[in-house]
Design goal:
Nucleotidyltransferase, domain 5, MutS, DNA mismatch repair protein, Chain A, domain 3, 29 helices, 17% strand, disordered N terminus
Length: 869
């Protein structure tokens, strides 16, 4: 880009001035019908979008790169740029080029970032697009989550672990934080988020209170119940500040702010959310619990289901309310279908009304809003007639917004275009001037025919015709044969070989009307449409409440459908410490089984007095991990108000669920598998409560056998002898030595996942039965995985030797040394390899006493050829 301003064109001077205000953003610069990018921005844009990169000019600073695309393709290209992690500033023309003789005035009308987006092409339908703001206070951390596409605004504060858990749960698309806290942020939360830092001056209490009270038009935040969250308020203020900085100032749809109340929901740390694969997975082609449960009819229902999964309830009354409504729908399948039919037609009302607040709603979307309000009326009637107290409550809260619905019905064309600029949006009969101009603009052809007929009759010129050209507009054309009949008040404009062309005052007046009509029509339609949108905006809060109630109904209907289709049962949720699951199944795995194969069910019983800890042993691949996971998922499903995959289930309310299931190296942070495992386990042991559910899988396997056994043993003892809590625990392990704990610990029981040996083969029965297991059958698993046969054979030899030595009282260390010494003495041909057998036979048939040197060399060559085959 040229540095010498004197040689820059006025356009490039304007571009550089605007670009300087948004140094970190990619600037889309509107020039006529195109959005252009220049310099480094052009290189990035061309690479991301796959469009042509051109170069213009030759100067002291080299050629300037350019890349652009038509303005009507903005939505498609913008989504690709934002998904590639770009911050995109959209610079539009702020005046009509025809209205100025100098350079067109331009300015940035919107800054779109990964966390500040609402376009359907950018945001995912079934998940929120949160912008998070994090504020590092002296002793606590404040956080807020704002979704500009739905109007949700949430706030919380707490220690680093709690905020980390929230970030893991809500998975914001962008996080803003203090510039001076970059090191602290990465130390605590890592580098897995898209982040942007702001100057520290924005992170002050006074500024936050000013911006929040001004936005919500209140004197204080007491009415929202967040006034005590001083650090959270700062984070919330920063979120609104950032939205303003990105040119988003129409935020009527962010109509309230809610506190994330930690004591209302089950504690799920980030390890548990990951390990149970609730809403996301690191494994390719794996299916999450959300994927399995999501049979919602609307995107807003899917987003609410996501929230319920990561935030299960721990208060009995709301859980019972949800379960009661699900049971009601299960027993009323016809009503279930009636509700589902209407809710499906309502669509994503939450994001639709947010576009009204942003003043970015299209005519066709307003028609969808009108349609949604009709179906909400039907939902209201059905809920009222259902004779159910919870549905009656929902019916009372639903607002059909009759006034705004009638306004939309009367003011909009029945099938308007998607964009206002396309015209024919406002219905006839709304504005007299609009109707008159439409008759002129669209009835012009008939009017011209009338003029032609009238003038032909008046002048007696039968061949008279009316036409138009760009030089002098509408004209009357008369052949030379009849030019003597032309009236004196006609003005001659052009002479042709065979005819003369004339204009009249009437034609000029009509021409001015018809040429200006379309522009005036657009102006009037734009004014009327904006007035209509402003009127609809007055109903944002009512329609947002409708959206929430419909989304809630959608999720409960989804739960009922799951129960019917998958034979889920209503769990008995109680205020006690008993967990009793009979015939439990893993909701995700059972849906992935081959057709015709039944899931092997299992019973699990845990309480605080008799069977607090179950040690589960059994072979690898036998299903230990599945039993752990399904127990956790059944508890969480019950406490989110969903029926569960079991024959019966009694769930004593759980307040925290901890898992240590599977591990992956965090080598980029210098942490080994074992370190990750110990970090997760430490987090569990330091946060347990009386009503916790703990799921531990293969603790200690990341270190030496003796260390591993010692750590696993000590953890089991710690959980059993904890002075203030007896957390219910499932402990899967391959250390059979832990079975000895049951002899000295009264609340520890041994179980194993049974197998059956037939003809030296292992059949996994996947059934949990009382008693410990003595074998791991790891070699059988290696064989199933396709290990080379000779490796499997050798492993069996070593295993047999070690087992014999163990029965004779030898230590593992001495046995391994003996096996190693024998390995050196093994004959090369002890393994039945066909190629080596040939070599062995060739050597055995040789008589070295009569072999000449030449014959010996030939035999060696023959053996070499055999080996290379």
């Amino acid at each position: 880009m040229a540095k010498n301003n004197s040689k820059e064109t006025p356009l490039m001077q304007q571009y550089n001035a605007i670009k300087a205000k948004y140094p970190g953003a990619l600037l889309l610069f509107r020039v006529g019908d195109f959005y252009e990018t220049f310099g480094e921005d052009a290189v990035k844009t061309a690479q991301i979008l796959g469009i042509v990169l051109t170069r213009r000019g030759t100067g002291p600073n080299g050629a300037l790169e350019l890349a652009g695309f038509p303005h009507h393709s903005l939505d498609n290209y913008l989504s690709k740029l934002v998904r590639a992690g770009q911050r995109v500033a959209i610079c539009d023309q702020l005046e009509d080029p025809k209205a100025t003789k100098t350079i067109v005035k331009r300015g940035v009308t919107e800054l779109v970032t990964p966390g500040v987006a609402y376009s359907d092409n950018i945001v995912s339908q079934k998940s929120n697009n949160y912008l998070a703001a994090v504020y590092f206070d002296k002793s606590v951390i404040g956080v807020s989550f704002a979704d500009i596409s739905t109007g949700e605004f949430l706030v919380a504060q707490g220690d680093a672990e709690y905020i980390d858990k929230l970030l893991q749960s809500f998975r914001p698309n962008e996080i803003v934080y203090q510039k001076s806290k970059r090191k602290e942020f990465h130390e605590i939360f890592g580098d897995r988020f898209y982040t942007f830092h702001l100057d520290d001056w924005a992170f002050t209490s006074d500024y936050a209170m000013e911006i929040l009270t001004k936005h919500f038009e209140v004197a204080s935040l007491k009415g929202f119940g967040v006034d005590k969250l001083s650090s959270g308020i700062v984070a919330a203020g920063v979120a609104l500040h950032y939205l303003n900085e990105t040119e988003h100032r129409n935020l009527k749809h962010i109509s309230s702010i809610s506190r994330l109340e930690q004591d209302k929901y089950v504690w799920l740390d980030r390890f548990t959310i990951r390990n149970l694969e609730l809403v996301a997975t690191v494994n390719d082609n794996a299916v999450t619990l959300f994927d399995t449960l999501d049979q919602t009819s609307t995107p807003m229902g899917a987003r609410l289901l996501h929230r319920w999964i990561i935030m299960p309830l721990k208060e009995l009354k709301p859980i019972e309310e949800r379960l009661g409504m699900v049971a009601f729908f299960v027993e009323q399948p016809d009503l279930l279908e009636t509700f589902t039919g209407h809710i499906r037609e309502i669509g994503d009302l939450e994001r639709l009304i947010s576009k009204v607040g942003l003043l970015r709603v299209g005519p066709r979307e307003l028609c969808q809003l009108k349609k949604a309000l009709y179906h909400i009326e039907e939902v209201k009637k059905s809920a009222l007639n259902a004779n159910d107290p919870y549905l009656s409550l929902i019916s009372d809260q639903l607002d059909i917004c009759l006034t705004v619905r009638e306004k939309l019905e009367n003011h909009l064309q029945e099938d308007p275009p998607a964009l206002l600029i396309k015209g024919n949006v406002i219905a006839d009969g709304i504005d007299e001037e609009l109707d008159r101009l439409r008759k002129i603009a669209f009835g012009g052809k008939d009017y011209l025919v009338e003029i032609q007929k009238r003038e032909a009759a008046n002048t007696g010129i039968p061949s008279l015709k009316v036409a138009f050209n760009n030089v002098f507009g509408y004209y009357l054309e008369v052949t030379h044969t009849h030019k003597d009949k032309v009236p004196e008040d006609w003005i001659r404009k052009q002479t042709l070989v065979n005819a003369e062309r004339y204009i009249t005052p009437e034609l000029k007046e009509y021409e001015e009307q018809i040429l200006g009509a379309e522009e005036k029509i657009q102006q009037i339609e734009t004014r009327l449409y904006n007035e209509l949108v402003q009127e609809v905006a007055g109903y944002i809060r009512q329609i947002q409440l409708n959206a929430y109630l419909v989304a809630k109904l959608d999720v409960l209907l989804c739960f009922a459908r799951l129960a019917i289709d998958n034979h889920y049962v209503k769990p008995e949720v109680q205020k006690n410490k008993t967990l009793d699951i009979k015939g439990g199944r893993h909701p995700v795995i059972e849906k992935r089984l081959p057709a015709g194969e039944e899931y092997i069910t299992n019973d699990v019983f845990l309480d605080s007095d008799t069977q607090q800890i179950i040690i589960i042993t059994g072979p690898n691949m036998s299903g230990k991990s599945a039993i752990l996971r399904q127990t956790g998922l059944i508890v969480l499903m019950a406490q989110m108000g969903c029926f569960v995959p079991a024959k019966e289930a009694t769930i004593g309310l759980v307040d925290k669920v901890f898992t240590r299931v599977g591990a992956s190296d965090n080598l980029s942070s210098g942490e080994s598998t074992f370190m990750v495992e110990m970090n997760e386990t430490a987090s569990i042991l330091n946060n347990i409560s009386e009503n916790s559910l703990i799921l531990l899988d293969e603790i200690g396997r990341g270190t030496s056998t003796y260390d591993g056994i010692s750590i696993a043993w000590a953890i089991a003892e710690y959980l059993h002898t904890h002075p203030s809590a007896r957390p219910k625990t499932l402990f899967a392990t391959h250390y059979h030595e832990l079975n000895e704990l049951a002899n000295t610990m009264s609340r520890i029981r041994n179980f194993n996942v049974s197998v059956k040996e037939v003809s030296n083969k292992v059949i996994f029965l996947r059934k949990l039965v009382p008693g410990g297991s003595e074998h791991s059958f790891g070699i059988h698993v290696a064989k199933m995985a396709g290990m080379p046969p000779r490796l499997i054979s050798r492993a069996n030899e070593i295993l047999k030797k070690l087992e014999i030595d163990r029965t004779e009282g030898q230590s593992i260390k001495d046995s391994i040394k003996k096996v190693q010494n024998q390995a050196y003495q093994l004959q090369m041909f002890s393994v039945e390899d066909p190629i080596l057998v040939k070599v062995r036979d060739t050597l055995n048939n040789l008589d070295v006493n009569i072999l000449t040197p030449v014959e010996a060399l030939l035999k060696l060559d023959e053996i070499q050829r055999i080996i290379k085959q």
